[in-house]
Design a protein that fits this description.
This protein is an alpha/beta fold. It is built from 12 helices and 32 strands. The chain has a 9-stranded mixed β-sheet, with no helix packed on it. The longest helix has 35 residues. The chain is elongated, with a radius of gyration of 28 Å.
């Protein structure tokens, strides 16, 4: 017996619906695949050209998460970014963040779906870093110290984040402001990371601690229980070597900018050790050249340094390797260059060559060293002779370009803008060498760089304090 007509129509309708759904599903999946393909961001796409730098082979999946501040981002060649990944630079879209990059991602990285990288001042991710899905990385926290205000209304605090080459960041990990990971660090899923961690270790937990690490002798091993419980960066003494000429060396009766920086860092609970082959001033009270003097205005500070009157890059480039190897600094603060221009007649192109050699030799002597390069200061000769001022400007432009070119997460090279607030007629006692006001401005530039790029200490407070001058008798000739 044949089925009723109404039942036959119903069966035909259901079959048509099934076929329509099947065809519709194919169309939707193909359309979505097409959208993901054409919507991906590459260096050749219009969206890719908004980035400060987007290397060859980079692909940012579609749909992206929140994405703004691209002019202040750099993504290295071959990096793959999953869909729904948020990458932001600055607090809001459309802000002018200045001349430097804020978010740097190296070559050959993989960033998993749903990850957030939220940069306000400096987030640096090295080469070949693998980041699993749903990781959160930021260099900013809200403060909460004022009990009268909602936390969301209180001013934020920035501390740079640095993730070294070859790291692996597990699913759901949170990388907090000020975190510094060495090379080949594995971060367990769900870890909350703050502080500094060495190369070749496994970290995990809340807060993260070293669970295993590699050493050349014993290989991979677990630290003793009491070491595992320690906060990684709480007891670490930071060795810093100041490399310079007479501006850093100082002379009879000076405080020196070395002293100003040391006291500022100590006031902000930074445990540091200034290192270097010298600990004296230059004695300018006698006719003898190169004799030493220990009559600091305040001698009660860590006075070790590597500065010498008359020193240029052109000679120090050949000596820094041995000094870096012997004194093992984690950071070099370098303020050289005026003697290259004034006494040695070095032109900006040769200055760049010498600077690159200096950096290469410093790295050879102490692999992994971070270098902060101070810009060449204005002197009275530059005030009086516009041509000499232009040579200083061109030299500083070369210095900034070298720093940008050679800066890596594993061996940072950054610029301390020591010349920015330094005016020779106001901040020197003889047209070249800093008076106390000049010392503070030099120290402030290096303090700002250490705080903002490396999370060490805090920026130097403004307005600057009033400080007494060096007593004239301290520099009076005794011959």
């Amino acid at each position: 017996m044949a089925p009723p007509i109404t039942e036959s129509i119903s069966l035909l309708t259901q079959g048509a619906r099934r076929r329509s759904r099947a065809v519709g599903g194919v169309v939707v999946r193909r359309a979505w695949a097409w959208a993901k393909d054409v919507g991906a961001i590459t260096s050749a796409s219009p969206a890719g050209r908004r980035f400060g730098h987007l290397g060859a082979g980079v692909r940012i999946g579609f749909p992206p998460g929140c994405l703004y501040g691209e002019p202040w981002m750099s993504v290295g060649a071959g990096t793959l970014v999953g869909s729904q990944v948020t990458m932001t630079a600055g607090l809001l879209p459309g802000m002018d963040l200045g001349p430097g990059l804020v978010l740097r991602i190296g070559r050959g990285c993989v960033i998993g779906r749903g990850t957030h990288i939220v940069a306000h001042e400096s987030v640096t991710v090295g080469d070949q870093v693998f980041i699993a899905p749903h990781v959160y990385i930021t260099d900013q926290n809200h403060t909460y110290t004022d009990p009268r205000l909602p936390i969301g209304s209180q001013p934020p605090s920035n501390r740079p984040v640095s993730i070294g080459d070859g790291c692996w960041i597990g699913t759901g990990a949170v990388i907090l402001p000020g975190a510094r990971l060495g090379r080949n660090v594995a971060v367990a899923a769900g870890a909350v990371v703050r502080g500094a961690f060495p190369d070749h270790c496994l970290i995990g937990g809340v807060p993260a601690r070293v669970l295993r690490r590699y050493a050349p002798g014993p290989g991979w091993h677990s630290p003793p229980a009491h070491q595992e419980e320690a906060v990684p960066s709480s007891s670490h003494v930071i060795p810093i070597m100041i490399v310079g000429d007479s501006i850093s060396h100082g002379s009879s009766g000076d405080w020196t900018w070395r002293y100003r920086l040391w006291t500022h860092l100590r006031d902000h609970a930074v445990d540091l050790d200034l290192v270097g082959p010298k600990d004296t001033l230059d004695n300018i009270r006698t006719a003898e050249v190169g004799d030493d003097d220990d009559t600091y205005a305040d001698p009660e500070f860590d006075r070790d340094h590597d500065a010498q009157w008359g020193r240029p890059y052109v000679t120090e480039k050949d000596e820094i390797e041995a000094k870096a190897r012997e004194h093992d600094p984690e950071y070099l603060l370098v303020l050289l260059g005026i003697n290259d221009l004034f006494w040695y007649g070095v032109e900006p192109p040769q200055f760049e060559t010498n600077l690159r050699e200096f950096i290469a030799n410093a790295r050879r002597g102490r692999p992994g060293v971070a270098i902060a390069l101070g810009t060449v200061l204005q002197c009275q000769k530059a005030v009086d002779e516009p041509e000499f001022a232009l040579r200083i400007d061109a030299t500083n432009a070369r210095l900034r370009a070298v720093a940008t070119d050679l800066d890596t997460p594993a061996e940072p090279v950054v610029v301390a803008e020591t010349a920015a607030e330094f005016v020779a007629p106001e901040h020197t006692w003889d047209g070249t060498h800093p008076n106390p006001d000049g010392e503070i401005r030099i120290a402030a530039a290096f303090a700002d760089t250490l705080a903002h790029r490396f999370g060490i200490g805090a920026g130097y407070p403004r307005p600057y304090p009033e400080v007494p001058p060096v007593a004239a008798t301290a520099k009076a000739n005794v011959d």
